[in-house]
């Protein structure tokens, strides 16, 4: 009976691991397709139907390229860099609750790698380690551009971690738990989703997630206009592949975490009614498992939307300048998230009112509107006619 | 101001809404998502080919006249006109009994075009006094992989009798490399 | 020698956690020693990070999940990144090591030796913390208990520390603000 739980648990962990890798693989394909579609093109369509074998072709190409280590590079750290990037990227999906629970005989096994009661902090810790891969790789390359990319990555990640952590604190205050499963269960009911109780926190978290993943508009560590290739200038073959792949895994994990923290995870409207109906018609085991499956599918729908959103933003917004990045992080997001925490706390203290932060949103909209009205009209630019 | 398209740059202080970035970001996202659903401009090249027009300069052809005689008289004007010096030829005198083969008394026994040198400028076509050399608008020179495939001799240049080429064929709305549509009646 | 034999004998009837503790302790010691002995400062920092991971493992063995994760976030995730950040800017050429004269070596040996004697004597006399297995609550290290302790017994120092951090953060933001007349970059 211990063994049954262990088997189901290890199957879940294996499935999570495999799905993470699979989704990251197909994210590379999706990225190219989305980029193409947003630019009125078609994108890869030669390898297999609709180009579906393109990731395999890319991986094959990566494997067969020359694996080059620069002469003056620190060899072992040069190899360690991409390995660390990959390792930390893969670790964080362990605590995400991908579904309710699988019922087998008399056990309920949660669809989750491990349900630690510090899940949010675990994710946070792993994310904060993610920068080591970039830093060590960039330094070990013995290249000025790589080093600059590594330093940018380090300063950017540390700066945005602060705002990231502060924006989560408001959620933790409302939930009173660090366990991701508990946070998901707390958001039952559509209007209880944290995106509705924490609109500002969501925007801050989303922005910081972009920065932590080194995605456009915050991809300064690999800014090719200034730094050749950034921290992976000297990398080739599958080591480069690991870096690129780690970015997509990070994107998947952050999408999963955004869905979990702010969009109710595997919850969907009328979930309990569906669950009850399924249990009534199919029995408590099969019905429950199917309901869990629907919840997992819904969660993956949310995750896919956010992966798409990451790509959508990438092909819309140009890169920030580095001082703009730092200004946004330190002078805008951190004060705003502190304000968010204070207002949430005040709202909770005053009659457990969860929607207090809408006040900030309303005030900001009003301020922006009045400011826009009061601002002197831009003189229409006189375009000389021929 | 040469093009009359220059715009005055405004360095005005941004309003609060603009400094919040979010409205502008959302506007940008709206624009890109509209393009997501637009019709794509791509033409799937090897499967679908675009008609390049009747003035496209493709594969060379040495024309025959209505009775099937080679028109070329080996005057060498095309070789002189060629800026890439891709054309070379050896002239020969027509013998008795060859009147059905060659139109003029002198003909090109060897006529070679080096396709590595040719730039498809069409000056040979312009220079030819006998309307013998044309660059077909409906066929491209195929990709070659071997060096001995590069120099095209008469075997590959002279018009085949069952595959005549007529420039002004109104039906020849053909894309290059599709010979089926360009076969004409005479 | 006798003590060593009893130690070896006690090794045989250890629990899984006990073996894990000794294994982890060995790795911790090796990595901690390599922090000091590594020639390259970057290797030294990496060994230090690894040491922090081992300490996190020890916290895990003690069922103190919160401390374990916070140790990773704060030390490995933030402070060591800054260490690495600073050391990457150093010029790591051999000829720059002007600090390694005989005088500094002597001073280092004396200071280190004195510190070791001091620590040994402290550990010799200090009482080793014990616990009562019968009344011990395994959930002591979990975040809920920690929160209750922090917000009841230690509320004043906790709030003071948090105000200190808030002030530090506001100060960092203020330092970043450009004043009128500062050059534009």
Automatic annotation (TrEMBL), chain A:
Keywords: Cell membrane, Membrane, NAD, Oxidoreductase, Quinone, Translocase, Transmembrane, Transmembrane helix, Ubiquinone
InterPro entries membership: NADH_UbQ_OxRdtase_su1/FPO, NADH_UbQ_OxRdtase_su1_CS
Taxonomic source organism: Fibrella aquatilis
Entries under PROSITE patterns matching the protein: COMPLEX1_ND1_2
GO molecular function ontology, one term from the record: quinone binding
Protein task: NDH-1 shuttles electrons from NADH, via FMN and iron-sulfur (Fe-S) centers, to quinones in the respiratory chain. The immediate electron acceptor for the enzyme in this species is believed to be ubiquinone. Couples the redox reaction to proton translocation (for every two electrons transferred, four hydrogen ions are translocated across the cytoplasmic membrane), and thus conserves the redox energy in a proton gradient. This subunit may bind ubiquinone.
Complex formation: NDH-1 is composed of 14 different subunits. Subunits NuoA, H, J, K, L, M, N constitute the membrane sector of the complex.
The reaction(s) this protein catalyses: a quinone + NADH + 5 H(+)(in) = a quinol + NAD(+) + 4 H(+)(out)
GO biological process: aerobic respiration
Record field: transmembrane: 6-29, 76-99, 119-141, 162-184, 190-211, 248-270, 290-313, 333-350, 356-373
E.C. numbers: 7.1.1.-
Family: Belongs to the complex I subunit 1 family.
Classification of source organism: Bacteria, Pseudomonadati, Bacteroidota, Cytophagia, Cytophagales
Cellular component GO terms, alphabetical: plasma membrane
Domain of life according to the entry: Bacteria
Protein name as catalogued: NADH-quinone oxidoreductase subunit H
Subcellular localization, as worded in the UniProt entry: Cell membrane; Membrane
Membrane topology type: Multi-pass membrane protein
Automatic annotation (TrEMBL), chain B:
GO cellular component: plasma membrane
Chain ranges passing through the membrane: 20-37
EC number of the protein: 7.1.1.-
Domain 4Fe-4S ferredoxin-type span(s) in chain numbering: 63-92, 109-138
Classification via Pfam families: Fer4_7
Co-factor remark: Binds 2 [4Fe-4S] clusters per subunit.
Function field: NDH-1 shuttles electrons from NADH, via FMN and iron-sulfur (Fe-S) centers, to quinones in the respiratory chain. The immediate electron acceptor for the enzyme in this species is believed to be ubiquinone. Couples the redox reaction to proton translocation (for every two electrons transferred, four hydrogen ions are translocated across the cytoplasmic membrane), and thus conserves the redox energy in a proton gradient.
Family matches, as PANTHER family: NADH DEHYDROGENASE [UBIQUINONE] IRON-SULFUR PROTEIN 8, MITOCHONDRIAL (PTHR10849:SF20), NADH DEHYDROGENASE UBIQUINONE IRON-SULFUR PROTEIN 8, MITOCHONDRIAL (PTHR10849)
Identification of the protein by name: NADH-quinone oxidoreductase subunit I
Taxonomic source organism: Fibrella aquatilis
UniProtKB/TrEMBL annotation, chain C:
GO cellular component: plasma membrane
Domain of life: Bacteria
Alphabetized InterPro entries for the sequence: NADH_UbQ/plastoQ_OxRdtase_su6, Nuo/plastoQ_OxRdtase_6_NuoJ
Record's bilayer topology term: Multi-pass membrane protein
Spans traversing the lipid bilayer: 20-38, 45-62, 68-91, 103-126, 154-175
Catalytic activity: a quinone + NADH + 5 H(+)(in) = a quinol + NAD(+) + 4 H(+)(out)
Main location: membrane
Any one Gene Ontology molecular-function term assigned to this protein's record: quinone binding
Location(s) in or outside the cell: Cell membrane
Pfam families attached to this UniProt entry: Oxidored_q3
Protein EC: 7.1.1.-
Keywords: Cell membrane, Membrane, NAD, Quinone, Transmembrane, Transmembrane helix
Role this protein plays: NDH-1 shuttles electrons from NADH, via FMN and iron-sulfur (Fe-S) centers, to quinones in the respiratory chain. Couples the redox reaction to proton translocation (for every two electrons transferred, four hydrogen ions are translocated across the cytoplasmic membrane), and thus conserves the redox energy in a proton gradient.
Family the UniProt entry places it in: Belongs to the complex I subunit 6 family.
The protein's name in its UniProt record: NADH-quinone oxidoreductase subunit J
